[in-house]
Amino acid sequence: MAQKELKEFIDNASQIYLSHLSLDCVVFGFHDGQLKVLLLKMKNSDRWSLPGGFIKQAESMETAAIRVLNERTGLDSIFLQQFHVFSDPGRSDNKEKNAHLRRAGIAVPAGHWFMQRFLSVGFYALVDFSTVTPQPDAFSDDCAWWDIGETGQLILDHSRILFKALEVLRLQLHYQPIGYNLLPPKFTMPELQKLYETILGRKLDRRNFHRKILSYEILRPLKEKRQGVAHKAPQLYSFDTIKYQKALKEGLGGI
Amino acid sequence: MAQKELKEFIDNASQIYLSHLSLDCVVFGFHDGQLKVLLLKMKNSDRWSLPGGFIKQAESMETAAIRVLNERTGLDSIFLQQFHVFSDPGRSDNKEKNAHLRRAGIAVPAGHWFMQRFLSVGFYALVDFSTVTPQPDAFSDDCAWWDIGETGQLILDHSRILFKALEVLRLQLHYQPIGYNLLPPKFTMPELQKLYETILGRKLDRRNFHRKILSYEILRPLKEKRQGVAHKAPQLYSFDTIKYQKALKEGLGGI
DNA sequence: CCAAAAGTGTTGTTTTTACACCCATGA
DNA sequence: TCATGGGTGTAAAAACAACACTTTTGG
User: Fold this and answer.
1) In terms of pTM, does the model score above 0.85?
2) Is the CB of B234 under 7 A from strand C?
3) Residue of least CA–C1' distance to C8
4) Separation CA A81–CA A171 (nearest Å)
5) Which CATH number applies to B187-250: 3.30.420.40, 1.10.10.10, 1.10.101.10, 3.40.720.10?
6) What's the pLDDT tens digit per position in A97-128?
7) Structural domain boundaries of chain B?
8) What does residue B123 show for φ and ψ, rounded to 5 degrees?
9) Which of A85, A245, B37, B198 matches a 20 to 30 Å C-alpha distance to A110?
């Protein structure tokens, strides 16, 4: 059985989108002390993919990325950052594409737009897990958060794209503040620390972390503490958005 | 008078190159205490441009960048690093392109490959000024080093591309060693310091810089000193390539 | 012998690291 | 009341910054 939407999309794509170019989004979230990534499961396939799409004829990459992410997952006005162009001639494997079209019962002529070689621009975003409700689009039958490292083999070179995004994220951590988009508006110091530890993949000293983060002066202590938890109630913080933005621009060390 | 080469190139381009995509190279060199950038002056134009070009149908971006830089400037086997995709819909201005074609006496039909909107992938490289002899290609009548900041207005958005490359270079300086490709094989500590000062745009303390760099253990003191200079003969160094490469991968702080 | 640039040393300050201790809370 | 996690202090070590002094060279 053919998928009406996919057929229609493929038939019209060459009129609407640039050729040879696509984009893929690596959306990171954080929950339960785990770094997550948002993935789509395509219909007629048992493999998962990064939410990706194509660029309209007169659209900037950045605009396209925001639009694509919204169309494919329902996420709204997310700040996406480009991080790498993936251009290996073998990356957009026609065998894999053909197999998928066959399962969907769609035939496309050889030399069709969809069968081109594609280069993909990778974008990444950090989002607050708790405020987001992913919705799969018409091409997918699931949209879900996966633990980093438990995604298994993604389609095409998407595993590589994910890995590269993670590498860039780790590097950024050393000279830019992180957390504003990954944590809820109010959070505790141990929660922020857990986030850092998860991204870096190693333990940090609780007390030194506390001092260090405070020295950046990007946090505002709130007048409340987290209630209903076992043990001592931890102080709640929120980010000082003004200073946070400043630190994003100028770096943390004030180098 | 038409330029045979340009006409031929434009006529055949759509058969050979991907559509909508180009690349531009920002090649940095260092000479006389000045950071330089390699520019081309197009024939029939008084404005300068970054060496740029197009991507063949089955070529990776990285391969294309090396090829383009070689074809356009004669530079050989240069390591180029992608740093940003420039995709503003207005960046590839048809007014400017048309004016140039008119001056060259070339007519291209509306809707021609060359009149497409182009996205450009920016690459940058650091090269040893002294070992390089730039040669303009058939489309250009000059290929020369310019002081950063004295380039004037470049074509299209090339000034912006150059600025962005410089921004990335400055950022890199804080966590990666630099100099191997910008200095001759043998150099003195003050020369290396001058390079850092030029890129950073500020003075550094001579003695602290000395100690700091040595602590990275990426330099090998040679048994010779620079001869024939006024005042005390400075010690010559070369990079320890093994350790340099290691530092490139792992970062300097050992973060 | 002197001016100018190169090399080395010292010292006080700041930052980082590795801890020990106290506090609050639910079970 | 006790185990557990949260908050604060402190001292040693390392890194950094600011400087003074010595050495070498060409003129």
Assistant:
1) yes
2) yes
3) B207
4) 14
5) 1.10.10.10
6) 999 989 988 888 888 999 999 999 999 999 99
7) 4-168, 187-250
8) -120, 150
9) A85
